[in-house]
Amino acid sequence: MLGAEWTQLQNGAEIRGVASDGIIGEKVNLTSEKVSALGKGFVRWLWELRGKHPLRIAVGMDCRLTGPKFMEDLEQSITEMGCDVMNCDLTSTPSLQMITKPSLETLEKWPDLQADGAIMITATGTHLSFNVNGLKFFTGGRDIVQEDLVQIMEFAAEGYSGKETPGTVHITNLPAIYSAELRKIVYEALPCQDGHKPLEGLKIIVDAGNGSGTFFVYRVLRHLGADVSDSQFLNPDGRFPNHVSSPDDYEAMRSLSSAVTSKKADLGIMFDSDVDRVGIVDSDGRCITRNELVAMATAMVLEEHPGTTIVTDSITSTGLGIFITEVMGGKHHRYQRGYRNVIAEAKRLNASGEPCWLAIETSGHAAFKENSFSDDGAYFATKIVIKLAQLKQQNKSISTLIEKLPLPQESIEYRLDIMDSDFSRVANETIVALRQFVLQIPGWEEETRNYEGLRIRCTNEYEKGWFHIRQSLHDPVMPLNIESDIAGGTESIVKKLKLFFRNIRNVDSTQLYNN
Q: Is the pLDDT of residue 311 over 90?
């Protein structure tokens, strides 16, 4: 059995922990020793999986402050195991994932690119402070799930004392290689003649949030002719001095919106720190995130693959379902929260014979089938830029794609803290009790096709909405999402929910009373 010093680092199928001092009350638990041991544990896990020895392991990092030290730790521990290391330095998570399963065309150009496995030094979560870091593990041909991570940690805890001929470290300019692949996609979609470039005449502002997305500005957009001169926060800085590095953050997107409108840009693009998520601002300064971003991806995919299934997470709106099925003629499969969950479900549907070309979460994770279901913010942004160029030739904006999306009149999210160490038990008991409470409320009906938490349709004329409650994937919190198609509808729904929560002791519902 793993001890608490290891289990506390597990965050789903990833490692996450406090990596440095700096915040009172937060004790460092992701140390250099732990990182080194995890590197060796990953190698041992790959040996058992592949039956191959030695191996080549790619290692990359985002801009978090402890990244360079952890890179050194992994280089040393992996080469001690007799394996070679591809040092990809500052790069994006999706680009690192790509080199564990590169296309034949990519390998023909860069024959030494393929790796047996990869470790990305990055911390997931928009709310995480500068002192947190983590590890993501990849290998070609399969996804690494929670059970795999437990095995990796067990190997790490055991240690390894075998003697191997040391491996070597190779420096790999992965952003340059990956950018060339993205440029190729644009050239194929927007062929040019007479020396012109496909993005000439477009003004695009990228906000990299002081993360790893700067390569997209210079190696992709500017190279293709776009004016990127007003892009902002391009200097990688793990302190994130300007705003939270997340397209799901209101203040961050508002900053980008202001830049787009003041500079009269055609498009704004926001990346998170490791470039696996994206948010968009149109030429009018409209922030396109969450349900609108899902709708935009859906519109592009259903143009290319009519009738295909779109997998979304559990909190997507009723209007989005109408847009996917009735407006765009696709199939909507609302599944669970969590980008790994929607991607796994999309793969399952394809394996069962149901075509599915998109898995997308409202946080900005979007995974396209033609891109091996990698949740790749730069790839998604590339598709949007191509569509923008095509629409501009017709004097249309990118928002044309979602002009028929039904939007709710009101929308609100609460995050209710669980006041007990047994988070899952409290969440489950709360949902069971709420289900019984709903039976007593006229006009409230449980959504039967629901894969996570509890989703309730509120059909009364003065509500015309829905709410969904679940346990957070990573935190001791129960997110509560409420939408209504009429003014005052959410207030009516909340009023009834207050009656329920006043009898629930282990969930802090004060937010319901403060808003």
A: yes
